Amino acid sequence: MRKTTGLALAFVALAGAVGTTAYAENNASARMREGTMMRLDKAMKDSNGTISFDQFSDAMNARLKKLVADNGGKLTVAQLADALEKARFEEMAKRIVARYDTKGDGTLTTDDITGREKKVFAMLDRNNDGKIERNELPKNGRMGRHRQWDGGDDSMQ
């Protein structure tokens, strides 16, 4: 491979990686803006169409201010990162429980997990012989369109 071709491919790969990261950040920013607008709309509805600075401030950063207050008035990077990570994993856990919970009681049991496994197994066992053969496995190694644990479109639900 010529050096210029190699450099061009490397640039394309780098641009793709940066673009993917930028898309993810833009998507997260859009969700944050949407959440902020929803909180401001709610505050305005609760106050007959206008809000004071204090109401605006509460709507904007109530959770962040609570974290600061819960940590003695100061919040370190590590404390904020821990809180963000906990919130992220709690959301992930909610999606997992919702996906597996057959009784709708908000809990996860071994029966729920086994039931889900049986459902997926039955979908993969295309010839219904009680065994999954290599040619019955998805070609791309993914079971449905969802990313693992993302709560996205799951064609096996």
UniProtKB/TrEMBL annotation:
Keywords recorded for this protein, A-Z: Signal
Cited Gene3D superfamilies: EF-hand
Domain EF-hand: 118-137
UniProt key word Signal: yes
UniProt protein name: EF-hand domain-containing protein
Region entry Disordered, spans: 126-157
Gene Ontology molecular function terms on file: calcium ion binding
Biased composition (Basic and acidic residues): 126-139
Residues spanning the signal sequence: 1-24
UniProt KW ATP-binding keyword: no
SUPFAM superfamilies for this protein: EF-hand
